[in-house]
Specification:
- By secondary structure, the protein is mainly alpha-helical.
- The protein is about 75% helix and about 0% strand.
- Helix 4 packs across helix 9.
- The longest helix has 21 residues.
- The relative contact order is 0.11.
Length: about 170
């Protein structure tokens, strides 16, 4: 009896997971529109630099090929890439000013209600403590970028690199 119960629980858990993934099919169908939205927001000067840096870091992680979980492992190999992408996009969208986001949604003809519903559905996957910790990342990156700008190291580094005979 206990063995039958375990199989039943496993089957019902698998069914719930399958239904949960099926709920993301509408989001997947809107992915091209959301990709255009992200690109429009990245190109807008009103979007904070730290947020753009988060997306650049995620893109670098995806392109590099050095993963937390190697891609050779079936199913799990691509999962870390997906998690990094989702978290980066979520962080990015959290930092975009609301008026800019709404303006771009209207320009691209994306329904706000559907967008908000999709974002809420994706956020349910991310544990709250992780979201809270990650929300600090864009501000930290922005502060680091400002510190580098204020230090004046950029022009000095460029002149060192462009100097004839430089090892760089």
């Amino acid at each position: 009896m206990a063995r039958a119960n375990g199989k039943t629980r496993r089957r019902s858990g698998a069914i719930r997971r399958a239904l949960g993934f099926a709920a993301f099919l509408p989001i997947a169908s809107r992915a091209p529109s959301y990709g255009r939205l992200i690109w429009a927001l990245v190109r807008d000067d009103r979007t904070p630099v730290g947020s753009k840096a988060v997306l650049a870091g995620a893109a670098g992680y995806l392109v590099l090929g050095r993963d937390i979980i190697p891609d050779d492992i079936p199913l799990l190999g691509g999962l870390d890439d997906l998690v990094v992408l989702i978290l980066a996009v979520e962080l990015f969208l959290d930092q975009v000013p609301t008026e800019v986001l709404h303006e771009k949604l209207d320009e691209l003809g994306i329904e706000r209600a559907a967008f908000e519903q999709d974002v809420a559905q994706i956020r349910r996957l991310t544990p709250r403590p992780i979201r809270a910790a990650l929300r600090r990342v864009p501000d930290a990156l922005g502060a680091a970028i400002r510190a580098v700008d204020e230090s004046g190291i950029g022009p000095r580094l460029r002149s060192w690199i462009n100097r004839e005979g430089s090892p760089a």
